[in-house]
Specification:
This protein is of the alpha/beta class. It has helices at 34-44, 59-70, 131-146, 165-178, 186-193, 198-206, 237-246, 259-266, and strands at residues 4-7, 11-15, 28-32, 49-56, 73-74, 78-81, 86-93, 96-102, 120-124, 150-154, 181-184, 212-216, 220-225, 229-233. The protein contains eight helices and 14 strands. The strands form two sheets. Strands 1, 4, 5, 6, 9, 10, 11, 12, 13 and 14 form a ten-stranded mixed β-sheet that branches.
Length: 273
């Protein structure tokens, strides 16, 4: 059975109510991160989903792994670091957030999952930008390319990195080059290019490196490709990945897909995911 292998960060969000002004306060704990939430959505729908990441050997790490496993996500390839670290915690308030993170100096060290030609490998977020995690992540991605797996890049570009975009741009461009498909949000396009128009961003900045861009907005999802463009109703990233994996795409096929073939892929979108 084809697998969806997702490489990204693991964190916990503590969400405070908008009107909080003191303690004690009622807060809600949730999983943190677009890629982590995407893995959970796919796992709950019965997809064979593998998550590759790192968490500390602490109580929060235990809670995260237990939750992932309960959602049907394979956690055997999540590195559990013990020395000098703690699982990342995001405190989220109305209009702002604070991240508390203490990670080891060395990169994450995990046993790679077996990657087959019919698998889809997804990467992105801070994991694809921070040199500490990016370097070992690139080893997995190069292996995935050799194994002829479809590679999908989800930028999930952090807003806090926008003032340093010139520093991160080379890594983003290399990520574009590695990917067969890019799935971005309007916020990603705004943070990276200062423009939320998918057609403009594709033509000016992306088409040189990757031939397929999906942009998932609130009202619609846009496809930009070297041969066609397409707009369909809004969909989650998880449901779009479901459609991509269900289409059984093969490595090297995306540059040659026609408008009709892309329409067939978007017809596979399951809005319940």
């Amino acid at each position: 059975m084809p697998k969806t292998i997702i490489i990204g960060s693991c964190s916990v969000n503590i969400v405070f109510p908008d009107d909080v002004s003191g303690l004690p306060a009622q807060a809600t704990a949730t999983t943190g991160g677009l890629l982590l939430d995407t893995a959970i959505s796919l796992g709950r729908q019965g997809h064979q989903t593998v998550y590759v990441s790192e968490v500390a050997r602490d109580a929060l790490g235990d809670i995260l792994l237990t939750h992932l496993q309960a959602c049907g996500v394979d956690t055997r390839h999540i590195d559990r670091f013990a020395e000098g670290g703690a699982t990342t915690l995001n405190a989220i308030f109305s209009g702002s957030s604070i991240t508390y993170s203490r990670t080891p100096a060395t990169g994450f060290d995990t046993v790679w999952p077996r990657i087959n030609s019919d698998d889809t490998v997804v990467f992105g977020g801070n994991f694809a930008l921070d040199p500490r995690t990016r370097i070992p992540m690139l080893d997995i991605l190069h292996h995935a390319a050799e194994r002829k797996a479809i590679i999908v890049y989800i930028p999930d570009f952090p807003e806090r990195y926008v003032p340093r975009i010139t520093h991160f741009k080379p890594a983003v461009i290399e990520n574009f080059e590695i990917a067969d498909i890019i799935i971005a949000t309007p916020d990603d396009l705004s943070h990276i290019f200062g423009n939320t128009n998918p057609a403009d961003c594709y033509r000016r900045d992306i088409s040189f490196y990757c031939d397929t861009l999906f942009t998932t907005g609130v009202e619609s999802t846009h496809l930009q490709h070297s041969s066609t463009s397409l707009t369909v109703p809004a969909t989650s990233i998880a449901s779009l990945l479901h459609a991509i994996t269900s289409a059984h795409l093969t490595k090297g096929q995306t540059p040659h897909l026609s408008s009709g073939q892309f329409k067939a892929i978007t017809d596979l979108i399951d809005t319940s995911i």
